Amino acid sequence: MARDHRAHRARDSRRPGGPRRTGRPEDLVRRTAFDVIRAVETRDAYANLLLPARLRDRNLTGRDAALATELTYGTLRGRGTYDAVLALCSDRELRRIDAPLLDVLRLGAHQILATRIPPHAAVGTTVDLARSVTGPGGSKFANAVLRKVAARPLDAWLEIIAPADTDLTTRLSIAHSHPKWIVSALRDALGPDSGEIADLLAADNARPLVTLVARPGRATLAELTSAGAAPAPYSPYGAVLPEGDPASLPAVREGRAAVQDEASQLVAAALAAVPLDGPDARWLDICAGPGGKAGLLAALAASRDAHLLAADLQPHRATLVRRTVDARTAVIAADGTAPAWRPASFDRILLDAPCTGLGALRRRPEARWRRGPSAVAELGTTQRALLRSALDAVRPGGVVAYVTCSPHLAETRVVIDDILRERKDTKRLNAPAVLTDLAPSLTGIAVGEDAQFWPHRHGTDAMFLSLLTRS
Ligand SMILES: C[S@@+](CC[C@H](N)C(=O)[O-])C[C@H]1O[C@@H](n2cnc3c(N)ncnc32)[C@H](O)[C@@H]1O
User: Fold this and answer.
1) pLDDT tens across 441-450, in order?
2) Is ipTM > 0.85 here?
3) Residue nearest to atom 1 of ligand 1 (CA)
4) Which residues constitute the catalytic centre (predicted)?
């Protein structure tokens, strides 16, 4: 994690935390980061949803908003590394420190070790924050701990907390701030000899580019590029916005384009691109909420006179889908494992299954700390039930796309292998071939006949795609 921050620092002169011109209230910036971090801890809030709301409430914009975002996301991501440093700088075990004060210390450690904020300023402002959060006792303790943190740069700390003679998984877990079980799972998914795990973990800690999708028939790539975006490397509908607020683009404001990871675009587009014999008029998105892929599928369906039915178990998520798709798309709240539709009645089905989200750690900084490995088995039951249901709902000769935003083998290939063993009427199609027809420059995605995207290889989320058909 740390190495990334330093590389980023050298490259990016716009990095938050540099000399300030606005004279806006820095303490409100830190307080906002702290409040969001606490809400993530105490009430399972999502930083990417709560932070923009807090920035709006508190009227923080421009450099202040950028700094609050960097401090919030950086602290949440780096928690594992910072805790290892703090444990050596504190005379109290971390579990004996009041939770709010520990979050203040993490916020301070992030500023000291991974931003351009001068250490004395980082210590001073964090001690002030500790005083306002916990009173004078907490501020003295924070002062003592953070002065020790500031005694060494991150490189030197890493040599102490993650020494070269530690086993690889533990060392990478501490240095790149990922729980050990996630490092193990990602190593398994990459393959034991890949040698790419450190690059992957570093990519998980980097800020993703903002990628837009131009929904076909509703917006064009030219419209996005004329507004300052550049064509995305792979997706025929994708554009990368180098800076600025996506909502400033009329196409985004009007819902004709949207922010969407490039791999998410490609897996939805791949489902639509599989050649089919026979009818091709009825499409289903079983797990559609909040509606990113449904937005693209609905537009593709409309361009071919097909109809999409979008479903989600959660009524509020079905409502979000309704806001995304056009009026000709039907949206229902329904349990995909107890279908509200007739068997064998769809030509194309997307099953974007609920999963651990280990492929989207770049966007959800807190996600890595939220679930433990037991979630994988729990989700596996639902994933299999939904896939059986999808295969029942597709007509013979139709296609089901099984998608996860996780590369964990137990959520991807193992699920598909189990279902193929169980169902003699079902077979895999060649997903990488369909994807490379759409995006000829795409390489490094094939895992047998399935496809796996990677942040460090493709600059996308780690989406998995298997395409299945039944007789
Ligand atoms: C990975 S998300 C889908 C993301 C969505 N396809 C998109 O691109 O925006 C998984 C969704 O599955 C839904 N879900 C979970 N269990 C379900 C079930 N039994 N039936 C239908 N939807 C379910 C969740 O509510 C969640 O919205």
Assistant:
1) 999 999 999 9
2) yes
3) 354
4) 405 (nucleophile)
